[in-house]
Amino acid sequence: MASAGVVNIRRDVDDVFYRYRMPVMLTKVEGRGNGIKTVIPNMTDVAKALSRPPQYTTKFFGCELGAQTILDDKADRWIVNGEHSADRLRELLYVFIEKFVLCAACKNPETELIITKNENIIRDCKACGQQTNVDMRHKLTTFILKNPPKKKSKSRKGTDTSTKEKGEEDQSDGAQSAEDGDALAARIKSEAAELAPVESSAIANDGWSADAEVAAVTKRTGSLNVNDSDEEKGDDPMDQLRLWIEINRDNATSQSVEEKLVELGIKDKHRTVQVVMESLFTSKIITAKELKKFQPLLASLVSPIEEKEKHQKALLGGVERLVGLTYPELTDKVPLILMELYQADLLTEEAAKQWGTHVSKKYVDRDTSKRVRKAAEPFIKWLDEAESDEE
Fold first, then answer.
1. Whether the predicted model's global pTM rises above the 0.70 cut
2. ∠ CA 111-80-288, rounded to 5°
3. Please, which of 22, 110, 255, 337 could form a disulfide with 49 given CB 3.0 to 4.6 Å?
4. Biological process GO annotation list (predicted)?
């Protein structure tokens, strides 16, 4: 059985002695039919070589391919739904490297991502000292802003000197000392040394070919969890719900989802309505009649609750996140989605009008909120005209 081998991080560099290398990314297709998915068994090792969390690289594939992803850090499972060729994913990995790893000034991969106070993402290069902007139009930037990388600087001797808490974004911290650059270079060098050695000729001839069986992957030594905040998000019932939906969406029913909500103890929480709305539905929400399929579930979450208005707001917040962040291509379908919710008695006229005329940053950024509400104008206008006709 062939070993994975390593390749240069920069695809335009063919020097076999190039110091920055990464393992060849392996892929394996599992399942069949609607449940088919592509597993990346050594994503943790690849991401480690890039000094990026594996969540970022896997989510990038999902954004580029328009596919759902499963980011299970504890089980070290990195999955892109659907069948995708190894060559296609490896090509996208190079695109990720160019956009989110390489310094735009010197093309060196010795960078780290920094989130500024005004929520821009920059690449801070330890090699040349330049700070270059990331293209904030890419969908992945939204995910990075929600799940910022943990920053931990070390002294030359390897002892911790500071730990930056999530949310304390300060662009001035990007100006690191020369000692920090030496420390990072030493760390990258040591990590590269841990990779399985291969002959120079093997590197030149191997290219991107590799055995895709999981058995060919070395045992994981640890992984980053960018979802950590003040509390361990792995224990957050909402995150558990999202992960469960990702894994079981194809076979889920209203009853099975409701049973999971009861098991997690979150059935009556208004935030549950938002998470279900944004996580359970896909880009086929209209064409595959997903809303009709899960109407009983949504009715049980929204209708019987005394604080119905609060739950309807959460429902609309889920629509904003579904359309505004995950599936922007659904923007022109917003009136149809709202109409189905309205006709199913899941959304009242009053709640719809209130939402449609008041931009809010509670669930998405202001620009996204405006865009989704702009798309909803035909439905809001229809409600006004229907009210006038009744009068």
1. no
2. 135
3. 22
4. formation of cytoplasmic translation initiation complex
